[in-house]
Design a protein that fits this description.
Layout: E1 3-6, H1 13-19, E2 42-48, H2 56-68, E3 73-79, H3 95-107, E4 112-115, E5 117-120, E6 124-127, H4 131-142, E7 149-158, E8 161-169, E9 176-190, E10 198-213, E11 218-224, E12 235-242, E13 248-256
Parallel strand pairs: 2-3
Antiparallel strand pairs: 1-4, 2-5, 5-6, 7-8, 8-11, 9-10, 9-12, 12-13
Length: about 260
Amino acid sequence: MVKKIIIVSSTLLIMSLFALLKAYPTEDIHKPKDTAVGPSSVVLELFTSQGCSSCPPADALLWKVKQEFPNDVFALSYHVDYWDYIGWKDPFAKPEYTQKQRAYGEKFRSNSIYTPQMVINGREHFVGSNRAELYSKIDAYKTHSAENMIKITNTDVANGTVAFSYVATGKIDHKLLRAVLVIDERVTQVKRGENRNRTLKNSNIVVQEKYVELKHSRGESSIQIPDIISKNDGLTLMLLLETADLDITGAAKKKILY
């Protein structure tokens, strides 16, 4: 069963970031793009929670897809915090990720948000455990070239941060760069809530993110390594390019030695 929660706030952190930029209409993925510059990139954002009994099948499906498409699919698991009240506090949940999901809810003109929810390239959504829908959408998006290409040219880990350099190709006007740190996998023994006494495996867990305004096609920035990351975690840096309407137009990723 899909878990839903009604949207009660219209003043959102993510939307305020993009309010300063020129808005773009949502594009039909089936419409040819004259601005395409490179190979396809399929970005999957799963909104999930360890406190939601409907989420483990979607978590397992995301892990499966990540294994099958290691290069052109970018799998992200965002843990939301609105199910923490049931009795289990998800260690990866952040209110910022709930705000991000609400921003998508406003974009999709939905009066509720739910888990598990899968958003693909920021353009459409469906129930995250729907295997047939997911594979169909991946196949569809893989047939289209990306509007932007982005390359991570250098990374350096020091003083609790990951410094990185990047080069973007294609039109970058009115777009933002989203830097995301994800850990490869974590197993959790859940002691309370709907998943009480279950052992849950989550993959590609978002543990930190940062937005950077794109002023030039190349640049440098950094992102903080949160305390939740340990030396045993596989760490990946992902860079995503986004329009003001939250469409994702390009992506890159690189393993980080930590």
